Amino acid sequence: MSDTDRQTDRRLEQAILELLERRAPTATICPSDAARAVYTGDGDGWRALMEPARRAARRLVAAGEVEITQAGRPVDPDKARGPIRIRRRPH
After folding, report:
1. What is the pLDDT of residues 4-26, one digit of tens each?
2. Number of structural domains, the chain?
3. Is residue 19 part of a domain?
4. Is residue 83 part of a domain?
5. Which residues of 21-36 are buried (b: 16+ CB within 10 A; e: fewer)?
6. pLDDT band at 91 (very low <50, low <70, confident <90, very high)
């Protein structure tokens, strides 16, 4: 993994946490919200960051920071297929 990739990964993780911090405790975000927040170009180049954003969310799940949901319920990040949402982990 290149330094640029590692920096992007850290920026995506930080974007997820910052976006969630600005929302209600039970609110969710889409990985695309983080991808758009990190992407610095014009157009839809943020789409290339979708899978890295999903991976960032999985790392944050492993760290106990967030949970990934589908249909409003927490799911195993390794088994989630299709659209996901991210929310802060209840304390």
Report:
1. 889 999 999 999 999 999 999 99
2. 1
3. yes
4. no
5. eeeeeeebbebbbbbb
6. confident
Range of the domain at 8: 3-75
| 84 domain residue, yes or no | no
> Cα(43)–Cα(34) distance, rounded to whole angstroms?
15
- Residues 31 and 86: beta-carbon distance below 8 Å: yes
pLDDT in tens, 27-47: 999 999 999 999 998 899 999
How far is Cα of residue 57 from the mean position of the Cα atoms in its chain?
4
Find how far residue 84's CA is from the centre of its chain: 9
Write the CB contacts of 68 (distance below 8 Å, at least 6 apart in sequence): 57, 58, 61, 74, 75, 77, 80, 84, 85, 86
Task: Residue 87: name the closest of 3, 26, 35, 45 by CA.
Answer: 26
Q: Are 57 and 84 in contact (CB under 8 A)?
A: yes
CATH for 13: 1.10.10.10
